[in-house]
Amino acid sequence: MACEKLQGGDALRRIETVRIETVRVGDLFPEEPHKRKCKLEILESAPQKRTIKIGIDQWARTYHLAFPYMQFIQMGWSLMVSFTNEPIKNLEDTLYFPPLPNVYSDGVVCLDPKGKTKPKIQDLIGLFWHTNFSREAIWPGWREAENLFCGPENFACRRNPYRCWEKRTEEEGLGFIANMPWSKEIDLLAFCLLGR
Q: What phi, psi does 130 have (nearest 5°)?
């Protein structure tokens, strides 16, 4: 897989642009499979600490969190985000759901890019990091964050798992995030097939 280090502010690694052809058998007419070609552009960032804001208006709170390797996958106007503990080597590697608000359970980010032309992936990534994470798609991420950062007995943490994530970041730096037992997998081919 060809990779290149991108120039600029964030340390991003470009993963080769991929074209996938998927075939879906229709429920109504199984003899006429639906073929779909999609082009995915994938960038990966190394583990890092980032500041994000969760909430809106006077209820917004800033968190300083450690992030593992992150894959940013663009198809058209949509952006999918995933976590891994190591850099991906190929598209068969398992990608994991990032437990963040604004990310649907399939890894697709709730974004509203403006403009009449398709945004570049770097613009979508910038929009992802600089937007306030809201409650539009909060529950899948919140529940997964509870499971990963709180444990079943820590009820105070379960009220705000992002505070627990932040506390571990303060105490342990990037070290703990590289060994997280991410559990919920996301499906790259389904992303292509559904064409969000």
A: -100, 5
Tokens of 44: 């990966």
Q: Which domain, by its residues, includes 12?
A: 3-194
Chunked into runs of 10 residues, the chain (196 residues) has average pLDDT values of 43 61 46 61 91 84 94 87 90 87 85 76 90 70 79 70 91 90 79 58
Would the pTM of this model clear 0.85, i.e. be above it?
A: no
Residue type, position 8, single letter: G
Strand partners, 67: 48
Q: Please report how many Cα atoms fall inside a 13 Å half-sphere around the Cα of residue 110, on the Cβ side.
A: 16
Tokens of 81: 């985000």
The torsion angles phi and psi of 128, rounded to 5 degrees, stand at: -60, -50
**Considering its fold, how many domains does the chain have in total?**
1
Helix or strand or coil: residue 71?
strand
